[in-house]
Amino acid sequence: MELTTMEAMIQGEAKLWGNIFAFTDSMALRCVLELGIVDIIHSHGGPITLSQIAAGIDSPSLNIDNLARLMRLLVRKDIFTTHHQPSDCGEITLYGLTPHTSRWLMRGSEFSSIHTDAKPSRVNDFMALP
Q1: Reduced to 3 states, what is the DSSP secondary structure of residue 73?
Q2: DSSP single-letter state for residue 102
Q3: Helices 64-76 & 23-35 angle (0-180, nearest 10)
Q4: Is the predicted pLDDT of residue 118 greater than 80, yes or no?
């Protein structure tokens, strides 16, 4: 196999795996909705640390490492932004809202129809399709 054919095969495989695991994006968004992360950041009036986000989540068994992974994924998807602030310990990452995407995820917002579209009953209807 010549190199370009091999590269095309690898790209094809990567695209296939991307489609197989595409559900992770919607599951991550659903977590954000259920945890109220957008509202937590919005209530602070600007970018906040992961610890501040965690403090606003009402869960006795919150896993901060999983929360960090969730936030990194959604920063990559342009749902949240990151800002870096120097501190005595190095650099602190602050998470903020994107101006045109995050507002769709706020509870009580005029744009918050996403909350009804992400209900389990909606997903179950889709999963029942033949």
Answers
A1: helix
A2: G
A3: 120
A4: no
- The domain tally of the chain equals 1
* CA-derived radius of gyration, the chain: 18
CA distance 29 to 16: 22
pLDDT, position 105:
87
CB 50 within 8 A of CB 64: yes
Question: Could you tell me the CATH number of the domain that includes residue 69?
Answer: 1.10.10.10
CA–CA distances in Å: residue 87 to residues 46, 72, 91, 92, 94: 18, 21, 5, 6, 12
Put the strands of the sheet holding 80-87 in their side by side order. 48-49, 90-97, 80-87
**pLDDT bracket for residue 119 (50, 70, 90):** low
Enclosing domain of residue 43: 3-127
pTM summary value: 0.75
Strands 90-97 and 48-49, by their bridges, are antiparallel
Q: 123 is written with which tokens? A: 């997903």
Give the number of residues written for the chain: 130
